Amino acid sequence: MTTGSYWVYEYSQTDTAGNTTVTGTDTVKITGDSVINGNVYKVFEGSFLYNCSSCKLFRRDSSGYLISETGRVYFSASDFDTLHIDNSQPSLYAAYYKMLADTSVTVPAGTFNTLDYLGHVYVVNPNSVPNPRITGNFYAYNIGIVKTRSVFIGGTEYLEAKLLSYYIAP
User: Fold this and answer.
1) Burial of 137 by CB count in 10 Å (0-12 exposed, 13-18 middle, 19+ buried)?
2) Which fold has domain 6-167?
3) Which end of the chain is more exposed for a tag (fewer CB within 10 A), N or C?
């Protein structure tokens, strides 16, 4: 993770009938470092599938785990057990995340061997929403995230970001 690196993503939304609509593009950049509670984090800036012009995420390596400033684990190249359980809103959902190895992913920037940070989201009152809802962040070695998939808690649509291009600063 080096300052000056960036990734350009194409965002899309897919409905229940399988119709996909491209909704835009975004560039995610590493803009610098930030010290939080004595630890140095890389600052990632972009919209990250959300409606904000300049969101910031903080990530650092901690003995082979990619973690946030809150301690949440987002990636491991070697730990394939459950990495994170999210029950922060138990009246709405519970989510379980773990790594899956050797997933081949093709996106506009190419075909990559990836590790998938796979999420299973269980909605409390699913109505017509099937359980579990599947999310994922696909990480390629020495590149970063090449594809993401997010879900709406109250609907069956999902959002994807696919890597269009990237630059890894030396």
Assistant:
1) buried
2) YmcC-like fold (2.40.360)
3) C
